[in-house]
Amino acid sequence: MNHVHVPAGTPLPTQAMILAGGKGSRLRPYTDDRPKTMVEIPGTGTPIIGHQLAWLAEEGVTDVVISSGHLAEVLQEWLDTTDLPVKVTTVVEPEPLGRGGGLKYAAPALPRPDEPWFATNSDIWTRFSLREMAAFHAERGATATLALARPRMPWGAVETNEFGQVLDFIESPPSPYLINAGVYVFGPEFTTLLPDRGDHERLTFPRLARERRLAGFTLPQGAYWRAIDTVKDLTEAARELAVR
């Protein structure tokens, strides 16, 4: 449960970074000719990056840096020919640097390096209040805050009693564990802690957790969240959109 009090005058981040350098091999054949972030959500006519930019703009973000790599020219062409709701700067990795390395390499392009910033993986499609997450981050004085989701399990669960008798079948129950939802708030000091190459989730976050400088913001109940990582995820996202 998040209890958020926004102190008067608390500045909320207006800059963000999208990590869009991955190949998205598990989304083939959709990613044979485009980066993962350029895959369209069926039925919307808009790629994942378009949904993300719209959401960031709705949450008060004015400047977005996209860290790109694989087929960056396809992404750049779309950006150049689309009416965007925010100012976008692209940074192309000279070689694959990993997610943490990608963040560090692109961070100098953020327009206000002395202010906090949002970041998100390019395959996340979600809707929740980034303002509340930023206030949560500020209230706790964290160096980094990650959004936490409780996804539904892909399998059905079986409920039994102490005698081993089956009582019920539960279709796709919520996971008992929270997971990293791939959306972050970073303080300006976070950039110096990133690796030159490698994954911040394995190299930087554990250190911050040990030092109690890492916070976790649980997504509000009912907030939409999905990672578009496989063809099945894409199909299910389209189905969920149809019934929303």
Automatic annotation (TrEMBL):
It comes from the Bacteria. Coiled coil: none annotated. Residues 16-241 form the Nucleotidyl transferase domain. PANTHER family: SUGAR-1-PHOSPHATE GUANYL TRANSFERASE (PTHR22572). This is Nucleotidyltransferase family protein. It comes from Streptomyces millisiae.
